[in-house]
Amino acid sequence: MLLRMIMCIAEECTIAHLRFPHWETVQDPRSVFGTVARLHAVSWLHVFGTLRGIHTGSYRVVWRLAVLPRAQCVFNIVFRAKTKNKRLVEARLPHNIRLLEFGSDYFDFVLSDLLEVTEPFEDVDVECKCTSREWKTNLMLCSVRLEPAHCVPGGSQRRGWEQQLLKMDSEGLGSRRLRRLKNLRSHPGASYRPWQPWTALHWYEPASIALFFAILVFAFALLLQSRAT
């Protein structure tokens, strides 16, 4: 039953424009599947898949994701789940700039309403979508799963990110965003990522371009000097 209740987004979902420089499938040991889908930059965002053979009952829809620093327009993305009988739940990430304080940590986004599955072994379609003209950037999608409502202690529907924010406040970590970003770097149109040595730079990154022109100027100076002598 567990295999029908959780789905790897990178391996089991259909992702529109799944190619660089829009999307990238990357290895991540923090994922239970070891693989995640990383959004760099895309205008038409559409990720969808199907959880098959769900038993009747009430479920919480839980998206496992990370909002990376300097993310844009991710609060416009609609996360939804729908049964074959057209029962629908959906929600957007709350407009809370402090979500960026998670850095590249994952959190659970729980849709606010319960999904009612009324037919035995019913398929549930899940998707996150935003087709506005604005560019959506810097998001990592790990998995989507269904949790039976009765399995949550006390019946609480508090979202995972809310719990983590409260924990950060209680530990006095709410003002330490810069510490979380000190080892991160970016280039336009791509997400933040851990520091890499200069040998791993791509040709289109500012540092690579600056290095290329520096070498070009140095070679030109040597050429002028050799002609002068």
Structure description:
It is a single chain. By secondary structure, this protein is of the alpha+beta class. The chain is 21% helix and 38% strand. The protein is built from 5 helices and 14 strands. It has helices at residues 2-5, 9-12, 160-170, 177-181, 206-228, and strands spanning 6-8, 14-15, 23-27, 35-42, 45-54, 57-72, 78-83, 88-92, 107-110, 115-117, 122-130, 136-148, 184-185, 193-194. The strands form 3 sheets. Strands 1, 3, 4, 6, 9, 10 and 12 form a 7-stranded antiparallel beta sheet that branches. A 5-stranded antiparallel beta sheet has the order 2-5-11-7-8. It has a two-stranded antiparallel sheet with strand order 13-14. It is elongated, with a radius of gyration of 22 Å.
